[in-house]
Amino acid sequence: MNGSVINHIVAAPADGRSRLRVVRLDGTTTLTLAELHARAGRLARGLRDAGLRRGDRIGILASNCLEWVLLDLAALRLGAVTAGFEPGKFDPDGSLIGRYQLAALFTDRQAQDPSPAQGPNPAQGPNPARGLGIRPIADVGRLIDEADQAVPLPLVRYAPDDVTTIKFTSGSTGEPKGLAATVGSIDSSISAIQGLFEHDGDDNLFVFLPLSLLQQRYWIYSALRYGHDVTVSTYEVAFAVLRRVAPTVVMGVPAFYEAAMRHIERAASRAAGGQPSPDAISAAAQALLGDRIRYLWTGSAPARQSVLRFFADAGMPIYEGYGLNETCIVSKNHPRAHRPGSAGRVLPGKKVLLDDDGVISVWSEHPVNSRYEYAGPGESERVFGADGTVRTGDLGYIDADGFLFIRGRADDVIVLDNGKKVIVRPIEEYLRASPAVHECVVLCPTQTHLVAVVSPATDPPDATAIETRVAAANAAFGKDEQIKEIVIAPERFSVANGMLTSQFKPRRRLISQAYWNPAGSHQGRASADGI
C-alpha cells in the first residue's frame, strides 16, 4: 500500500531525532523516536516469545503512560490487534477477556479476578493456549528485557482493509459497541490532516485525552511518520505541565478550553488589578498554555463562539472539526479555510450526504468499518448502509463555500459541550406522565443546557403543575440531564399546526424553530432554576 502511514511507521520512524515525551504525576520520560521504535520492536519480540501472533487481541486498560504507547506500537510491529479500554468504563476482570476475545489484558488497575493470568483459559479468545490473561502493565518492562533479540520479527505489511485496533463507542445504553478500525481509515485521516496543518520538526503536539480513544494515538503515528515531537500526558496534570513542555498544538475538547478560558481570565484580572487589557489576556494565555502555540484543536462537541473568539483574540486560534467513531474525521477548519461556527470543509476521501430533512450521512473512500462488533441485533443495520455509508443521526447543512454546519441531533440523543451524551426520551416520558402535560420535547439548542418545550394539557396551562413536574424530573435524573428552562407553548401541538407528524410524533426541528429564540424572550419561556 503506497503511502501508508501505518506501513511507514512499522518499517522505521521518519525522523529519529524528534521526541516522545510522557509526562505524568510520577515523572517524565523522554525518548527519541528512534529509541521509541527500537523499544517497541523489542517489546514485539517479547510478546512473540510469550506466544502472541498476528491477529491476536491485546487489551489495554490503563491511564496514559509510556507502556500504553509501547504496547500499541509493538502490536503494529507484530500484526496484533489492540483493544483500548477507557478506565472507569471497564473493570479488569476475567469476563473482559472472554467477552472481547483477548489473548492478553494489560492494566494498571487491581484485577478483580486475577485467575486468568495464571494460565490458559478457554475464554481467552482465538488462541487460548497462548493466552497471557490479565497482566500488570509493568510487565512491559520485563517482556522487553527478556525478549530474544536474535530472532527477527516477521515482516508485517498492512492492506487497507486490515484491522489494527478495536475501538469502543461511548454508547448511550448497555455495553459499548465495538468497532474494528481499518488501516485505510487511519491512513487517510492522518494524511488528510497532515495536508491541512503541515506538522513538521518544529511542532510538538500535546495529547492528554485517553489513549484508548484511537484518534489520540493518531498524533503519535503522525510524529513517527512526519518527524515532529509529541507529548503525552493526562487530564489531571495537563494545566500543570503545558507551559513547561511548550507545545505548538493542543488536542482538547470544548470543556477543557472553557476551563482554560476561566483560568486565563482570572489570572489576567489579578495581574491587571481589574479589567484586563488584550495584552494582559494574551500574556495570561501564554503563561498557561506556553508561548509556542500555533493552533488549538477541538472536537467531540461544538465549542461556544465566545470561546473561539477569546482564544483567537489571544493569538491562539481554535479549529473545530466534525467526526464520529464510525466515520473518523469528516471535516476540519484549518488556517487556510476557517469559518467560525462551522465544522470546516469536508476532507479528501469523504463525502457528506444530506437527506431531505438535513440528516447527515457520510461516505468514506476508506471506511472505518461497515458494521459493529458486540452490538445488539439491528444496531449495525441502523447505522451502516450496504456500501458502508454511515447515517450519523446529526442534522446539518453545507454553505455555498463548502463549510459544514452541524445543527444538532436528528434523534433523541443530545451531546453537551462537555462531550456527555444525554438521552432525552426518558426525561420526556417522565414529564408526559403529568396530567398537566400533553406533549413535550426536550431540546439542547446551544449544547450547554436542556430546555423543555411543553404542550399543555389544559387551557389555560397549569404552569405550577408543569414547573412542579420539571422540578421532580431534575431531582430524578443526573446532573447532565437537568432542565434549565421551560417554554410553555401557547398552542397545543397538533397535526394541523405542523408540530406533530401524521403519526402524532413531535417534529423536533419545527418545534425548536417555533419556540426557541436564544437571542430574546418568548411567550411562556421561564427559567427552571430554583423550582
Structure explained in plain terms:
By secondary structure, the protein is of the alpha/beta class. 31% of the residues lie in helices and 24% in strands. It is built from 15 helices and 25 strands. It has helices spanning 5-11, 33-49, 66-78, 94-99, 139-146, 183-197, 214-226, 238-245, 254-272, 278-289, 305-313, 379-383, 425-432, 463-476, 508-515; strands at 19-24, 27-32, 57-61, 81-85, 104-107, 133-136, 163-168, 178-182, 204-207, 229-232, 249-252, 295-298, 318-324, 328-332, 345-346, 350-354, 359-364, 390-398, 404-409, 413-415, 421-423, 437-443, 450-456, 483-488, 525-527. The strands form 5 sheets. The protein has a 9-stranded mixed sheet with strand order 2-1-10-9-11-12-13-14-15, sandwiched between helices. It is globular, with a radius of gyration of 25 Å.
- Which blocks of ≥5 consecutive residues have pLDDT under 50? 115-129, 518-523
Radius of gyration: 25 Å
Major beta sheet summary: 9 strands, mixed
Q: Strands of the largest sheet, in order across it?
A: 2-1-10-9-11-12-13-14-15
* Number of distinct helices: 15
Report the principal-axis shape.
globular
Give the helix proportion (percent range): 25-40%
End-to-end C-alpha gap: 61 Å
Estimate what percentage of residues fall within beta strands: 15-25%
Structural class: alpha/beta
